[in-house]
Structures are given as C-alpha cells and as structure tokens.
C-alpha cells in the first residue's frame, strides 16, 4: 500500500498539517481616572466572536499577549483549557 | 419659456433628490446584553438608562437586547446605568467605539472574577467594581472595560 496515493486527492492536504490558523491578541492597557472612579481598557485575550465565526478547519490558536496564554479553539468553541505560553514554547 | 422652467425645476429636483434617497438611514444600534454575577448567568434588567450631557433615555431590554438611541450613539461620551440584583450600576466614559460591539457581557462579583482576570487591576475592590466585556462578529479582538466604584447598594425607600 502506498500511503501517498490518496483515494480522494483533494483530502490529501488535510493530513499535511493540523490546519487552522493562529494570531495574537495584543496587550496594552489604557487607564483613566475620574475622581475616585478608575476605568481600565484592555483587549480580550481569549478568542472573540469573530474568531469563532471565521474558524478554519482544524485547530485554531489565539495567543494572548497580555495574559501570556495560548487558546485552542474550533467552530464548536474552546478546546480544553488554555496553556501557558511558556509551556507551549517549551518544545521549540 | 414654460417648458424650460419645467426642465429647470426637474434639474434642481434631480440634484436634490438623490442625497435624500442615498443618505444612509440611521439604524439604531442593537446590543445583546448578558449579565454574569459570581460566574452565573442572571436575567438582564427590564431596562437600562443612558445619559449624555443633558440628554437621558430609559431603554427597554427585550429578550436580552436593547436599542441604543441615536442621540446616545452620536454623543462623545455617555453613562450607562441599571439596577441589577439590588445594586445600582453606573458605567461612565463609554465612548462611541464601544457601541460598535454588538455583544456586551457585564460581569459582577462579590469576591473575585473567574473570567478575564487579566483585566482586573491589582488591589481593586471587587464588590464595588464592574467588568464590561465587549465582543463582536465583526471586530477582533474584543475589549474589556474594568471600572472601579461603579456598583453600590440601592437604598430602599423608608
């Protein structure tokens, strides 16, 4: 049997990788004070509604630059718990 | 002359009408509101109120959604107020850009927040704080607004 000869050649590309896509959600905080009230703005770190909407086949990744966590997701939602970026990079 | 007058009038109308038809209809912004208290979903209030300068509006929340009045979405900054589970919530300094997100989740907690903990400043008093998470299917990433002193007990009338 020759594993390189696929029955459906169009599916061949799927086995070359995990698929999906990855991107970073930026860090950065803006704080403003108005008397005793303090307002802090920060980017959401986990995948957004748009990320879920535009999910690609396979495992998609969002890296939170602020919380330093790696989130895995697909169309159904988050996959497992986020991993610390430090742990994620250990294999590199 | 008579015919020319009509032609002139038609020409003026031709220039005047398109802007009327082409100007985009100002559609009220609709926002889905979810409330999470101590990590549990709680029903949203029946109404929320917005204020900006001298303008104030009480907006009905229907099936977890509300429409932002045009006067409010046009304003530079505005405050959102609501009564949720016996607490008066008031979030101010909301800018126009925040209304581009169609999904708002307001987190309230007594001791600690479980989600979006990265947005909580060190030493913040949780019981009197609010965390508004803005999300959208058009904008990535979303935004978290953490505000101190935004929550107080509603005093019951004597």
Plain-language structure description:
The complex is a heterodimer of chains A (92) and B (158). Chain A is mainly beta. Chain A is built from two helices and seven strands, in the order E-E-E-H-E-E-E-E-H. The radius of gyration of chain A is 19 Å and the shape is elongated. The model of chain A has no long low-confidence stretch (mean pLDDT 88). In chain B, 16% of the residues lie in helices and 41% in strands. Chain B has helices spanning 2-22, 70-74; strands at 29-37, 40-42, 47-52, 55-60, 65-68, 77-84, 87-95, 103-108, 130-135, 143-147, 151-153. In chain B, the strands form two sheets. In chain B, strands 1, 2, 5, 8, 9 and 10 form a six-stranded mixed sheet that branches. Chain B starts with a helix and ends in a 5-residue tail after the last strand. Strand 3 (37-43) of chain A pairs antiparallel with strand 10 (143-147) of chain B, so a sheet runs across the interface.
């Amino acid at each position: 049997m020759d594993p390189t000869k696929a029955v459906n050649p169009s599916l061949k590309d799927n086995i070359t990788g995990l698929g999906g896509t990855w991107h970073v959600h930026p860090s950065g905080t803006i704080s403003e004070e108005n008397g005793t009230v303090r307002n802090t703005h920060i980017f959401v770190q986990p995948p957004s509604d748009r990320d879920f909407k535009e999910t690609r086949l396979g495992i998609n990744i969002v890296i939170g630059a602020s919380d330093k966590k790696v989130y895995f997701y697909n169309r159904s939602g988050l996959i497992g718990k986020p991993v610390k970026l430090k742990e994620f990079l250990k294999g590199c | 002359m008579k015919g020319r007058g009509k032609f002139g009038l038609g020409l003026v109308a031709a220039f005047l009408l398109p802007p009327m038809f082409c100007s985009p209809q100002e559609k009220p912004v609709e926002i889905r509101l979810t409330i999470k208290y101590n990590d549990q979903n709680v029903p949203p209030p029946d109404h929320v109120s917005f204020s900006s300068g001298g303008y104030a509006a009480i907006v009905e929340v229907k099936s977890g959604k509300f429409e932002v009045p045009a006067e409010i979405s046009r304003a530079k900054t505005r405050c959102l107020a609501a009564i949720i589970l016996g607490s008066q919530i008031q979030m101010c300094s909301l800018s126009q850009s925040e209304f581009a997100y169609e999904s708002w989740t307001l987190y309230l907690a007594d001791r600690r927040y479980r989600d979006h903990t990265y947005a909580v400043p060190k030493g913040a008093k949780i019981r009197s704080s609010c965390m508004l998470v803005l999300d959208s299917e058009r904008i990535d990433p979303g935004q978290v607004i953490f505000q101190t002193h935004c929550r107080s007990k509603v005093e019951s009338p004597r």
